[in-house]
Amino acid sequence: MDVILAQPRGFCAGVVRAIEIVERALEIYQPPIYVLHEIVHNRYVVDDLRKRGAVFVETLDEVPHGAVCIFSAHGVATTVTKNAEQRQLQVIDATCPLVTKVHSQAQRYVRQGFELIIIGHAGHPEVEGTRGCVNGLVHVLCTSEEAKTLSVTNPNRIAYVTQTTLSVDDTREVIDALTQRFPNIKGPALSDICYATQNRQNAVRELASQIDILLVVGANNSSNSNRLREVGQLAGVGSHLIEEAGDLQADWFTNKPNVGITAGASTPEVLIEGVLQRLHDFGITTVQTMLGKEENTTFRIPMTLLGDQSPTPTKLIG
Asked: C-alpha dihedral over 42, 131, 172, 236, to 10 degrees?
């Protein structure tokens, strides 16, 4: 049984930045440090940070008055930011810069008088954060069928933005359907969609012709991990989303298939290593990494977290 590792896989630049922000905040301010929602969608990462003193909360009401609070990589609504100011929390914003860019685009369209469409999954933290950063009517949809039946106030004043954890391929049909109905619709270039999501999906498509089974290491609530599994299935490969090595089932490997492994953008490499160790029990012969796109994107962390000494806290750090 041969294993091929997808390239790229695992952590993206936004996730690396968000985790580093929590780690540095723990060093500078000392525990407990409060984090609004999961910093990223991965239980291993969250549990590790929790052991080191991070306290994950679902609402700001759970954060003591004046405490240090980190916003997750998915971004938050404007009302959350205002609530944090009222509670005099020391906020550190770990929102992915690509998400922040989407917020800015959405706000610009609304200021210009456009009715806004968010292409994404309703209820996802990133989508809810984007929806909550603008005033006015907002539509959320994720399929071309929804686009074809969408009712709007003024067909000539429509604009869209997209959830970053969708790929160009995920959104193309929806955008095409919207453009056909609303020829004057405004929206960002497809190149603005998250590079990491697209790169990982492209790698799976290329890998599919060489494997019999695909393992996607990632959290069940991770949008991009679920989409990687779907991409494998659409390519005709039996695909499984697993959180860790313990989720592997022996009967998947009885015929000694060629196995491909990828990981969502919130998945640390240590979980992939654990899967490889477990696969040795099932008869791994070789492990190789496919030739793929090298990613060198980095995002800087807030300047106040770069020094050796604890900075004077402010209402908004960064």
From this structure: 30
